[in-house]
Amino acid sequence: MIFVSDFISLIVKAFEYGLLTKAIIVGIAIAISSAFLGSFLVLKRYSMMGDGLAHVSFAALAIALFFNASPLYVSIPIVSFAAIIILLMNEKAQIHGDAAIGLISSFSIALGTIIVTLSTGFNVDLFSYLFGNILLVTKTDMWISIITTIVVIGLVLIFYNELFALTYDEEYAKVLQIKTKRLNYLLAILTAIVIVVGIRAVGTMLISSLIIFPTVTAMQFSLGFKKTILFATIISVLLIVIGILLSFLLNLPTGSTIVMLNGILLFIVFVSKKLIYKKG
Amino acid sequence: MNDKIATIKNITVKFGRQTILNNISFTICKGDYISIVGPNGSGKTTLIKTILGLISPFSGKIISDRKIKIGYLPQKVATQDKLFPATSAEIVAMGALSSRKSPRHLSNDDKKDIQKLLHNLGMEKYSDTRVGLLSGGQQQRIMLARALATKPDILILDEPTSALDPKMRDDFYLMLQKLNKEENVTIVLISHDIASVAKYVNKIIYLDQKIIFNGTLEEFCKTSDLTPYIHTHDMGICYKEGEAK
Questions:
Q1: What is the ipTM of this complex?
Q2: Which residues have a Cβ under 8 Å from the Cβ of A101 and sit 6 or more positions away?
Q3: What is the pLDDT of residue A222?
Q4: CATH code for the domain in which residue A110 is found
Q5: Is B16 on the interface with A (CB under 8 A)?
Q6: Total structural domains in chain A?
Q7: What is the pTM of this model?
């Protein structure tokens, strides 16, 4: 019991010093925006778009650090541009989505690595971007995360019906004369922004997991689309908050702790579902 | 029957140098129940996709004196993905989006109409069921409800029974026949199997890149010069069981 009360007092102190408050707020914001988009991306089989764009953000980050510019302001336009290029490759050059993502992703990693090799002196910063360090977020990061989340929620709610049609059956959406191209670009740019902002929490290497895991877990329950988004959001928020607190208490890397928790929950849900079906 | 909804005029579709459809012309009138039949690769789906505006023709046009609303039931339905988290009501609601302007929000009346459609097709109790959990026949009813939710001038169905067993297939065709006769819904039905649809429809268009025949079943069977162009087993529809061919 002493062990638990020590942990609680440590967390209380951390909140008092403001160390965890910003991290938790940023975490919740990223959890909501990534889960909101996740349902559309996973079901459109664009899951790896997040991963590819995260790699682009590595190159963007290297460029920003090379020119001593703000990583966020450099990354958002570059990653958004990359998202558009992926879609254009798909549409105009008829290169399949996964191949287009792979091409852009590997090119970006190569570019980022060359820039890193040509420069010296920012290896520490780069490491925190690769694996995230949510405890180091600034007030500006916090506000950007909140604004991003409000924009994502707002746009998804406004275009919900059209996004749903696009995700379920793009050809049918075209028959309904829904502007599918525009919606695809909207989705890609929103993903790019969420990726860039979310990298602060879990890093370049793990950000796509925040888009994929909560949605895949929520999909295991036989719910409708709206409820799946809601459920994925709840799962994402809970696990990010628990992950931040656990990583703080046990001195573990935050991003990895959040991803591990997501993985464990998906495993439990998946196995339980199989067992229930077997019994039924 | 002469109230024209759309005229398909001299439609030619090419993919690269290959001609898929050659100079296709026919008229769709109110209350028609047309079946477009023909062997695999005859251009049936291409023709439908051209009418739907998904494919631009090389030449020719579709003429109508009004904006026509089309309810479409595609050949492959996305519900083949069993895990896709969408309920029957959510799927049917997609159809109702056709009459809305972007960002296409649905009214309470739309939602009531969706429930009514589900009720009419005997699917009301599955309204909140994930569509991937339904049987093939039930899923097809949901897709039909989605197509009807557009309140269509023309209902177009592309091989709607390909995943159904013969009993389900006949039930489905009977349901379509009822819609056509009782509610005067105009239907264009694509099938590769003339035998399964001929008894339900009032017009047959036999397609094999060009129109080989356009008329009633009776006319089809009386037109003796069709034989060289039509697959032998398709002509079987004109003979009663046991009758010499």
A1: 0.86
A2: A48, A49, A51, A52, A86
A3: 80
A4: 1.10.3470.10
A5: no
A6: 1
A7: 0.88
